[in-house]
Amino acid sequence: MTAELVRESSRQLAFPPHLLGYARDLTMAWLLSYDSPNTRDAYRREIERWFRFCAEHDLDPLEARRPHGDVYKRWLELQAGQPVPLKTMARRLAAVSSWYKYLAEEDAVEFNPFENVRRPKINRKHSETTALTRDEARAMVEAADKDHGPARLRTAALIRLLLRTGIRISEAVDATIGDLGFARGYRTLRIVAKGAEPKIRRLPVETTFALDTYLSDRARRAGVELADLRGPLFASESGKPMTRGQAYELVVRIARQAGIEGKVTPHTCRHTYASIAEEAGVPMRKIQLNLGHKDASTTEIYVESRERLEDDASQIVESAME
User: Which residues form the Core-binding (CB) domain (predicted)?
Assistant: First the structure.
């Protein structure tokens, strides 16, 4: 946690003009207390959302009380224009509560005003994400191959990597070319899993070919030998790492071009990997290790995400009532 890292975090976080001095320093310390960059980014976005609410209502964040938290919940729904998913709402309230808890422990505020704000009750074993079928997964790969523009090869490689290894979108965009390797004759990718030690994943043959094709084309356009190519595994046109937002939008667009109905996100690809693996007879323990889940029950949620639609007895009941 160097001074440079603190300064960089400060530049990225939009503070209210009056939130200076000790409270501001504590806010940066609170963010930096989280080891995961993804967690820091998520909490940074949520606390800025709270700051926007405070600015709109002429509220000093350090003077907030519980009723402000209750009003904030309704404000979030008004901003979204529709009911906010329960998990999203719970996460947003938890982030602000974590900030106040940190400040209260350091005597910057008297108490945590969000401590008793009612949060949605979440069933930890339920997920609203539904895995794709094999045909839908194939359709996404075909749509990626038919994508247009100079980024077509990158699209083909990224979609295959997400669907066929189940890695997180953050793991894909954070990877560098140097993370590619070989082990016992297999092509590998070193990834830093969420909250865990780095791990080596084996890359399937066709996914490897798509990656090599994309990187070879990128090296040619950069005027260097493939062996000398450096930088992020998936780069933007400027050569900078592809952002999670860009990758997210790409997945959504390719799913739409594939004609897949319903919401498809990078997390859908992760569920799809687990579902197809289980369907193909891969042991649950192996799927759990591949996905980096600490708890097997989390893996079961991924596997069951598609089955709960296919196994729904509503059609049987309707037919019985005819």
Answer: 21-104
| Amino acid identity, position 143 | A
**Looking at residue 185, what is its pLDDT?**
84
- Asked if residue 270 lies in contact with residue 168, where contact means CB atoms within 8 angstroms, the answer is yes
* CA angle, residues 171, 176, 177, in degrees to nearest 5: 130
- For residue 180, the SS3 value is strand
Last residue of a domain, one of 88, 105, 122: 105
Whole-structure pTM value: 0.64
Q: How many whole angstroms separate alpha carbon 161 and alpha carbon 214?
A: 12
Phi, psi (degrees; rounded to nearest 5) at 228: -100, 0
HSE-CB of 198 using CA atoms within 13 angstroms: 9
262 or 216: which carries more pLDDT confidence? 216
The parent domain of residue 84 ranges over 3-105
Alpha helices for the chain (secondary structure H):
3-12, 21-32, 37-56, 66-80, 86-105, 134-145, 152-165, 169-174, 205-222, 244-257, 266-279, 284-291, 296-310, 314-321
Tell me the CB-side half-sphere exposure of residue 285, using CA atoms within 13 A: 0
- Asked if 258 contacts 250 with a C-beta cutoff of 8 angstroms, the reply is no
Rounded Cα distance, 243 and 160, in Å: 18
Q: Is residue 186 located within the same domain as residue 41?
A: no
Kindly list the distances between the CA atom of residue 96 and the CA atoms of 59, 68, 69, in Å, as whole numbers in the listed order: 15, 12, 9
- Total domains, the chain: 2
